[in-house]
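Ops channel
N.P.: pipeline sanity check, posting one input/output pair.
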C-alpha cells in the first residue's frame, strides 16, 4: 500500500474533515486545489496506482515531477496538522513546559527578560512537580544561557538543580534501557513458549548492571517502569502468586508516601492494570475487580490519549474477571460493546477481544457463536505466532479444536489436534540429559498439553470413554496441570473441559469450581 495513503487512512472521519479545512486555511483557496484533490483520491475506497493518480491529477499532460512535489506538500500539511492537534489535545505537563519555554525564548529575544524569567520559574516548577526531566533540562539550559540577567537566580543554584535533574533523568533513561533489554531478551520466550530463557537470571543481571535495585521507591514513573520490567519476567515464569503481593505492596507504599498527582495518572493507571492482572492470574477475582474499578475511575478523568491506549486493557480484564465471578453474561456484553464501539479498537485489540469473546460464548455453551467469532479472526497460524506469540496461538488452536468437537465435527477437531501436536513435536523435541542441561520431555514446557491432547484424541475416537473409571483416574494424573497455585488460568480452562466430560457436568460450572478451589 502507498505509505502516504496508509497514513491518511488511519485518520478517523472527523480528523479527515479537519485536515481538509486546515489545508484550505493554509492556502486560502478552496477551488482548483491539487493537494485537496490528491487528498480526496488517497482517501477514496479504491486504491490507485501512481500512474493512475498522475493521470487523474494531470489529465492534459502527465507530470510526475509536479506529482511528487504535491505529495511532499500534502505530507507537510499532514505533519503540521498532527502537530497542532497534538498540542490541542495533549494536556500533559511536558507540552505546557515546552510552550512556556518557547514563549520565554521569544521574550528574551524581544528584550523583556523579567517576564521571560518569570515564565522559566513557572516552567521549572511544573516540570519538577511532574517529573518531566527532559524539558526541565532544557529550562535549566536556558536559565544558564541568560544567567547574567539582573532578574536571574544565582548561577551556582541553577547548576546544582541541573545536576540533580540530570541524575534523575539518567536513572529514568537507565530504567528505559533495562526495560527494552528485558523485552528483547524475553521475546524468544514469548514466541517459543515458557522455559525458553532463564527469566529470573536475566532480570537480576539487568537490574544489577543498570543499578536499579532500589530505584523504584523514588518516583511513580520509575516504579511503573520497574514493575513493568519485573512483570515481563513473571509472565515468562507464570509466577503471579509471588508477583501480586509484591506489586500491591509497592503500589500501596507509593500511594501512602507520595500519592499520585494528576500528572501521574498514566503511571498510576499502568500500575493499577498490572496489579489487577496479577490478582486475576492469582485467582483473587474480587480484589482484581476492585483495582479495575479504581482504574476506571482514574481513566474517566484522564486525557483522551491515555483513555484510548488503556481502556481496552481494563475492559478485557474486567470481562475475564466477571466470567470467574459467575457473571459470564456480563462478560459477553462487555466485549460485544467493546467490539461495536466507535472509534473501533486497534487491530491487535480486536483480535484479543474476539478470542476472549469466543471463550465466553463457549462457557455459555453457545458453540456456534464461539465458532463464528474464531473464524472472524481471519489470520494464519504463522501470522498469529509471529505477531502475538506461541501461547496466544496455542490457546487459539486448542479453543478451535474444542469448539469443533462440541459442534459435532470430530474430523475437523482431529485435524486441528494433529496440527497442534505436529507443531509442539517440531518445536520441542525430546532431548536426553547432557552435562550442561537436564533431559527435556517431548513438548518441552508443553508436555502436559500433549497429554491433554492424548485424552481428547480418545474422546474423539469414542465419546463414551470419558465416563469410564479408568479414564477418570488417568485424567486426575495429568502432569503439572494443577500442581501449584501459580498454574495458568488458561491451562485450567482447558483442563476443566476434560474434567467436565469425565463428570458429565456443564463446563462453566466445573471451571468455576476448579478456579475457586
Amino acid at each position: 500500500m502507498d505509505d502516504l495513503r496508509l497514513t491518511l487512512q488511519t485518520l478517523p472521519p472527523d480528523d479527515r474533515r479537519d485536515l481538509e479545512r486546515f489545508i484550505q486555511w493554509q492556502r486560502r483557496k478552496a477551488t482548483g486545489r491539487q493537494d485537496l484533490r490528491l487528498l480526496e483520491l488517497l482517501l477514496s475506497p479504491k486504491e490507485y496506482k501512481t500512474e493512475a493518480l498522475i493521470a487523474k491529477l494531470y489529465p492534459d499532460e502527465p507530470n510526475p515531477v509536479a506529482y511528487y512535489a504535491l505529495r511532499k506538500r500534502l505530507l507537510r500539511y499532514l505533519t503540521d496538522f498532527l502537530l497542532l492537534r497534538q498540542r490541542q489535545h495533549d494536556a500533559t505537563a511536558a507540552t505546557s513546559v515546552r510552550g512556556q519555554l518557547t514563549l520565554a525564548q521569544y521574550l528574551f529575544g524581544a528584550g523583556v527578560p523579567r517576564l521571560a524569567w518569570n515564565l522559566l520559574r513557572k516552567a521549572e516548577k511544573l516540570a519538577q512537580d511532574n517529573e518531566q526531566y527532559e524539558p526541565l533540562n532544557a529550562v535549566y539550559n536556558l536559565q544558564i544561557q541568560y544567567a547574567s540577567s539582573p532578574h536571574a537566580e544565582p548561577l551556582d543554584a541553577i547548576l546544582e538543580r541541573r545536576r540533580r535533574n540530570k541524575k534523575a533523568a539518567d536513572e529514568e533513561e537507565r530504567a528505559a534501557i533495562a526495560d527494552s533489554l528485558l523485552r528483547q531478551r524475553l521475546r524468544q520466550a514469548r514466541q517459543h513458549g515458557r522455559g525458553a530463557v532463564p527469566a529470573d537470571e536475566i532480570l537480576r543481571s539487568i537490574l544489577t548492571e543498570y543499578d536499579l535495585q532500589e530505584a523504584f521507591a523514588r518516583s511513580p514513573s520509575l516504579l511503573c517502569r520497574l514493575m513493568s520490567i519485573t512483570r515481563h519476567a513473571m509472565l515468562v515464569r507464570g509466577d503471579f502468586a509471588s508477583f501480586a503481593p509484591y506489586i500491591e505492596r509497592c503500589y500501596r507504599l507509593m500511594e501512602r508516601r507520595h500519592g499520585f498527582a494528576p500528572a501521574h495518572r498514566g503511571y498510576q493507571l499502568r500500575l493499577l492494570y498490572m496489579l489487577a492482572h496479577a490478582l486475576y492470574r492469582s485467582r483473587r477475582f474480587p480484589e482484581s475487580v476492585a483495582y479495575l474499578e479504581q482504574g476506571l475511575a482514574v481513566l474517566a478523568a484522564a486525557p483522551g490519549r491515555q483513555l484510548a491506549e488503556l481502556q481496552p486493557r481494563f475492559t478485557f480484564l474486567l470481562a475475564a474477571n466477571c466470567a470467574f465471578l459467575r457473571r459470564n453474561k456480563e462478560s459477553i456484553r462487555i466485549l460485544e460493546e467493546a467490539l461495536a464501539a466507535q472509534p473501533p479498537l486497534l487491530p491487535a485489540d480486536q483480535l484479543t477481544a474476539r478470542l476472549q469473546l469466543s471463550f465466553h460464548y463457549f462457557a455459555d455453551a453457545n458453540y456456534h457463536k464461539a465458532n463464528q467469532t474464531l473464524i472472524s479472526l481471519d489470520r494464519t497460524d504463522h501470522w498469529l505466532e509471529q505477531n502475538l506469540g506461541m501461547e496466544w496461538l496455542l490457546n487459539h488452536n486448542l479453543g478451535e479444536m474444542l469448539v469443533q468437537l462440541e459442534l459435532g465435527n470430530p474430523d475437523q477437531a482431529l485435524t486441528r489436534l494433529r496440527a497442534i501436536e505436529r507443531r509442539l513435536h517440531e518445536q520441542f523435541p525430546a532431548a536426553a540429559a547432557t552435562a550442561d542441561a537436564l533431559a527435556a520431555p517431548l513438548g518441552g514446557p508443553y508436555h502436559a498439553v500433549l497429554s491433554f491432547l492424548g485424552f481428547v484424541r480418545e474422546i474423539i475416537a469414542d465419546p463414551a470413554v470419558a465416563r469410564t473409571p479408568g479414564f477418570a483416574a488417568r485424567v486426575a494424573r495429568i502432569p503439572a496441570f494443577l500442581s501449584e497455585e501459580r498454574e495458568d488460568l488458561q491451562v485450567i480452562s482447558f483442563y476443566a473441559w476434560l474434567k467436565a466430560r469425565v463428570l458429565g457436568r456443564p463446563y462453566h460450572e466445573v471451571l468455576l469450581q476448579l478456579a475457586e478451589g
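N.P.: looks fine end to end. Residues 193-197, 482-487 have pLDDT under 50 and may be disordered.
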